[in-house]
């Protein structure tokens, strides 16, 4: 009798051990899958490590309507266009089809590889759609007469300052979703997530000059 209880206890213990081991394997497997998926998401969606945390922006592709709205606000404009944070290159491709010579700035290497592959696949030649691995905050943008940006509210004030210093007087800036906090816009179209705003640098400078001279001589 004692023997059979011992055997039963031993069997029960070995079953528990089996379950425990199995659960541990399952937990490790789930952990590994989760970490792998997170790593993959981070590789595609998060910008490089060198960007300060305050200026870090994830990848969020613009919608078809948003892209169409950007192109409407760039109608009649020509030549050089910069997309600040090109993502998978969709805005650059639309603009290059409209005849612009586009540079897409992107710091995420996976997105960069993807957009370069797309450009090659679609047969878009180099000067019309160029993708560069460059932090646009550290790039001189003075050559661009057209700038497109789909970023985040937290960085729009910093971007205003940078663009106002660097862009030529005939430049136009089109931003998606999040307007500049201080610049007066020249026009806007769309609503909700698809809303885009256009700003003419000449008008922004004029407004700034008038406001500062008014402050100097009230
Ligand atoms: C909201 S997504 C917009 C993507 C694309 N322009 C579109 O409309 O679909 C912002 C992109 O900016 C990139 N980005 C963020 N900071 C950057 C920086 N300092 N220099 C270059 N690219 C940056 C991110 O990796 C991300 O792909």
UniProtKB/TrEMBL annotation:
Signal peptide segment: none
Transmembrane segments: 25-46
UniProt entry tagged with the keyword Cell membrane: no
Domain of life according to the entry: Eukaryota
Gene3D superfamilies referenced in this protein's UniProt entry, alphabetically: Vaccinia Virus protein VP39 (3.40.50.150)
PANTHER family noted in UniProt: METHYLTRANSFERASE DOMAIN-CONTAINING PROTEIN, SI:DKEY-190G11.3
Record-given protein name: Uncharacterized protein
Protein source organism: Ameiurus melas
Lineage, highest ranks first: Eukaryota, Metazoa, Chordata, Craniata, Vertebrata
């Amino acid at each position: 009798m004692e023997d059979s209880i011992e055997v039963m206890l031993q069997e029960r213990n070995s079953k528990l051990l089996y379950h425990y081991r199995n659960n541990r394997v399952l937990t490790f497997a789930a952990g590994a899958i989760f970490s792998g998926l997170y790593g993959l998401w981070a590789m595609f969606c998060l910008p490089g490590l060198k960007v300060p945390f305050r200026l870090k922006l994830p990848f969020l592709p613009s919608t078809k309507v948003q892209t169409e709205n950007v192109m409407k606000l760039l109608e009649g404009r020509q030549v050089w266009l910069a997309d600040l944070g090109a993502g998978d290159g969709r805005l650059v491709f639309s603009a290059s089809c409209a005849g612009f010579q586009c540079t897409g700035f992107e710091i995420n290497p996976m997105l960069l590889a993807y957009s370069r592959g797309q450009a090659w696949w679609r047969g878009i030649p180099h000067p019309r759609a160029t993708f560069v691995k460059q932090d646009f905050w550290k790039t001189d943008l003075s050559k661009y007469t057209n700038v497109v940006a789909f970023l985040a509210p937290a960085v729009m004030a910093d971007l205003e300052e940078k663009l106002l210093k660097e862009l030529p007087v005939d430049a136009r800036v089109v931003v998606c979703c999040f307007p500049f906090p201080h610049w007066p816009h020249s026009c806007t179209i769309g609503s909700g997530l698809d809303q885009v705003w256009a700003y003419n640098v000449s008008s922004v400078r004029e407004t700034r000059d008038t406001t500062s001279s008014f402050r100097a001589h009230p």
